[in-house]
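Quick start: load a record and inspect it. Here is Cobalt-zinc-cadmium efflux system protein:
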Amino acid sequence: MGVGHGHGHGGDGGHAGGRHRWRLGVSFGLVAAFFVVELVVGLVSGSLALISDAGHMAADVVTLGAALVATKIATRADSTGRRTYGSYRAEVFASGLAVLMMLGVAVYVVVEAIGRIGEGGSGPDVATGPMLLVGFLGLVVNLVAMALLRGGSQESLNVKGAYAEVVADTAGSVGVMVAGGLVLATGDAVWDTVVAFLIGAFVAVRAVMLGREVLAVLGQHVPAGVDIDTVAGALGGIDGVCDVHDLHAWTLTSGMHVATAHLVLVEGADGTGVLRQGQLLLREQFQIEHATLQIEGHRSAACDAVTW
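Running the structure step on this input writes:
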């Protein structure tokens, strides 16, 4: 017996990523335009730090583009009848792509940096003027993108993935400026390689942190901040409930938590009232708005027969 609210899926109203799609669009335009500038200057100047940051910005472009596509797909109504939860999980897959892109950039930069150090050195001569200028411009672009995405990063895993990319790239822009300053001050281009290595390591750490969140959603873990034993205790405390079993809770996508449970009632209990209380409890105490609660007069033998 479903807890009583509409089950239609589609539209921006309930989807956090869809509400912030315009932020992704503006950020995508800014980052894509600057990526071309940074890559060209990086190749001309010979700066590994600048090239590494351009590579990370390329990952930003792909990630933001995928995020835009994912939010469009996620808010599209299902016309096949096969996707009973809609296409909301598209944003989770886009976030997974962001993780892979970040790790790919990090590995490339670290391997290249280690190769230069292993060759004894500093690599080619580095033009510090372009490094400093492009690093500063990149910092400005990333700060604008951060300001745009910050508002949605707490609501949507998709926007959070894009935000994490931009944060990491902001650190990369700062690193480019630091590297340029050190090379200019010391005359030793090894600082360009060292900073590039640090940028790569930082990006890898950010990717792993986001990847853990993505895997938790895809693995249907209990939503972050929710203790399943506490949920069971709260449902069991509803007047008329004597047992709670087959309780499951997971995250469909950002801000959309789902739960199912079987509630065994004492004799004479008001089943309709229990359903309403269960709905209210899960929504208000645990932010689980979509729940399917099954009412039983006694523990069903069919439940005990389930082997998984």
